Amino acid sequence: MSTALSRRFRLKTLIGKLPRLAGFNMLPGTRLGRFQPYAIFLVALCLGFAMTVAVYRAETAANQARFERLADETVDRMNNRIGQHIALLTATRGLFEAQEGFLNRPTFQRFVQGLDLLNEYAGVQGIGFARYVSSGPANEIEVSAEIKRNYDITRQVIPPVTSEPYRTPIVLIEPLDDRNREAIGYDMYSEATRRAAMIRAMVSGEPTASAPVRLVQENVEGPAQMGFLVYLPYMAKKPDGSSSLDGFVYAPFRAGDLHSAIIDRIPGEPFVIQTTDSDAGSDGRGVVLYQSQGFEAFAATSNMKASRALDVAGRHWRMQFVATGTLSDAFAHLGSLLIGAVSILLAGALMALNRIQLKHLESAQTIAEFSRKSAEQKDLLLGEMKHRIKNHIARIQAMARQTLRNSSDLQTFEKTFSARLQSMANAQDLLTRSHWDKAELKKLIAGELEQVFGTVPPDDKLNGPVVQLDPGQTQAMGLTVHELATNAMKYGQITDDEGDLTVKWSVKGRGKKRMLHLHWREKAAARIDVNAQGKGFGSRLIEANIKGELKGEIERQLTPEGLTVIIRFPLEESDGV
Predict the structure, then answer these.
(1) HSE toward the beta carbon, residue 226, CA cutoff 13 A
(2) If you ran DSSP here, which 8-state letter would residue 545 be given?
(3) Following DSSP, what letter does each residue of 4-44 receive, concatenated?
(4) For each of the chain's 577 residues, which pLDDT tens digit applies?
(5) In the 8-state DSSP scheme, what is residue 105?
(6) Residue among 185, 214, 187, 209 at smallest CA distance from 198
(7) What number of CA atoms fall less than 13 Å from residue 70's CA on the CB side?
(8) What is the per-residue DSSP string for 328-382?
(9) Which fold has domain 100-266?
(10) How many other CB atoms are there within 10 angstroms of residue 547's CB atom?
(11) Of 509, 558, 553, 502, which Cα lies nearest the Cα of 529?
């Protein structure tokens, strides 16, 4: 064998083993073979689904990481902004210290204007100073006079009556807008939440934030927001070198403006926020300082959430983030979508290729089976031809004897004998037409009996319902009746006057379970030697026709008086009338 042929042989061998290497056996025509393309489709689809899920999870994890990063950045911005505001309070306190506590409004106004709070420090409502004085009419009159000097307005301390020993009325606040004008003269020490924060600031000396409160500035017409304040104590030095609390530098914050200043810098509104003061409230759940619009609706449906804690001048806040769905752009899951689509297409292509391959294998098997059956049929036809020639000779001899016995002269013999030979030829021609569509059973049997015996039995000897046979059944039954008739003539002396033959049939069952039952009964002219009967080619041909071609069964009952043959085989649902 040449090298090229050897390579081609090895290649074909490998291709033939590929299905087995892949875990599949090509079994066309079997139940496994019919379901094999679908099994391949399901396996490929499952693998594609697994890859799609893996990629989808990776994309989701990336989105979650991005969401977590945005939450961290937002908390950092909040910390930085509040830190900047506290730094402004520290700078303001330094201004008071430089002026030894005697700071007039023009100087304070120029200082705050230079900070540009509205543009650079959005979220803080302003910066102010609250004078710390003992309760009493004299001190309250002095505070009103200071307010008059600073803002040229007559304002009494609010509220006018308090049960506290000290008061902290606001005497300076900038920038002076409608909201801040409303706060001038307000005694923050009279309110419990503010007072608690100021006491903590006095004790620590550090900037201290209050719990969530409603700012005095919110009394002005407009949408109200929750707020908080940050206090920084100012200690005035006395001539003897000691110091005492003179007041508080403070900043009021509107929580909504503070959060908007941070969130507005993040494009696309990727999340909503709820900020809670964990130290406030009596139920341990804290008090909500700020909540984005639609937070509760998103929190009930979104699977992407994050929580961060931060310290704001001694207060513990918790910021909860919930994704809105805009975090993922239109191409966030493009990879998983592409993999899913490609997996479906690949699974379909594999199934189609496998079905094509199975069809090719089925075609090859069909051709091989057809070739095998053709060879078998050829051998059968050759044997049948030899057998028929012998039968024809025996039949012609019997016909000649019978015709001679009943002929008075040679002219009568010639006429009768020629007619019978022509009948045999006509019946043989009808039998060998392979292109028949349907054939009636009674006509088929009558034609074969006439071919063998020269006559057709009367209706009481040959009867049954009308049954239509397809071409295969017609050929098989024609050969079977021919062999039975030939054997009856040769061994049962049916052609003699004393012999008798009865053929009857019936159809039993319905639909696909319809069966033809045919009874062939021979009554011999003389007793038959049962032991002398053998099983020659004709008997084997009958069994091959009934069991192989007709998928039926046959029973023989041979007695000295004659032979009974029972044939049963299924009929197609369309057979018969």
Answers:
(1) 15
(2) I
(3) HHHHHHHHHHHHHHHHHHTT----TTSHHHHHHHHHHHHHH
(4) 455 445 555 544 544 454 454 444 555 555 556 677 777 778 877 887 777 777 777 777 777 788 888 889 999 999 998 998 999 999 999 998 888 877 889 999 899 888 887 777 877 889 999 999 999 999 999 999 999 999 999 999 999 999 999 999 999 999 988 888 989 999 999 999 999 999 999 999 999 999 999 988 877 666 778 899 999 999 988 777 788 899 999 999 988 888 888 887 777 778 899 999 998 877 778 899 999 888 988 888 888 889 999 999 999 999 999 988 766 554 556 666 777 777 787 777 777 777 787 777 778 878 888 888 888 777 776 776 776 677 667 657 766 776 677 677 888 778 767 755 665 565 556 555 545 457 788 888 988 888 777 788 888 889 999 998 887 788 788 878 888 887 887 776 676 556 788 999 999 988 888 999 999 998 877 777 777 666 665 677 788 888 888 889 999 888 888 889 999 999 876 555 5
(5) H
(6) 209
(7) 29
(8) S-TTTTHHHHHHHHHHHHHHHHHHHHHHHHHHHHHHHHHHHHHHHHHHHHHHHHH
(9) Beta-Lactamase (3.30.450)
(10) 13
(11) 558
d(CA 143, CA 141): 5
For residues 388 and 506, what is the distance between their CA atoms, to the nearest angstrom? 29
**Can you tell me which residue has the tokens 């059956």?**
373
Tokens representing residue 70 in the block:
């945005």
Token reading at 485: 């008739």
How is the chain split into domains, by residue range?
A: 28-98+333-377, 100-266, 270-328, 406-570
- Are 487 and 535 spatial neighbours (Cβ–Cβ below 8 Å)? no
The set of residues, in sequence order, having a beta carbon less than 8 Å from that of 64 and lying 6+ positions away, is 304
DSSP string, 419-467: HHHHHHHHHHHHHT-TT-S-EEHHHHHHHHHHHHHSS---TTTEE----
**CA 197/CA 462 separation, integer angstroms:** 122
List the structure tokens of 385: 């031809």
Q: How many CB atoms lie within 10 A of CB 132?
A: 21
The CA distance from 323 to 272, in Å, is 7
| Cα–Cα dist 263/72, whole Å | 13
Count Cβ atoms below 10 Å from residue 523 Cβ, excluding itself: 16
Rounded to two decimals, the pTM is: 0.54
Query: Token pair of 360, please?
Result: 């090719």
Q: For the chain, how far is it from start to end, CA to CA, in angstroms?
A: 64
DSSP 8-state assignment for residue 124: B
What are the CA-CA distances from residue 362 to residues 349, 352, 367, 514 (Å)? 20, 15, 8, 31
Tokens representing 255 are 């929580």
Q: Are 540 and 563 in contact (CB under 8 A)?
A: no
Quick one: the chain helix, strand, coil %, rounded to 5?
Answer: 55, 20, 25
Nearest 5°: CA angle at 371, between 368 and 376? 125
Read off the DSSP letter of residue 292.
-
CATH dotted code for 406-570:
3.30.565.10
Length of the chain: 577
> Going by DSSP bridges, is the β-strand pair 243-254/468-469 parallel, antiparallel, or unpaired?
unpaired
Cβ-proximal residues to 61 (8 Å cutoff; 6+ apart), any chain: none
Q: Tokens for 211?
A: 């719990």
Asked if the peptide bond before residue 106 counts as cis, ω within 30 degrees of 0, the response is no
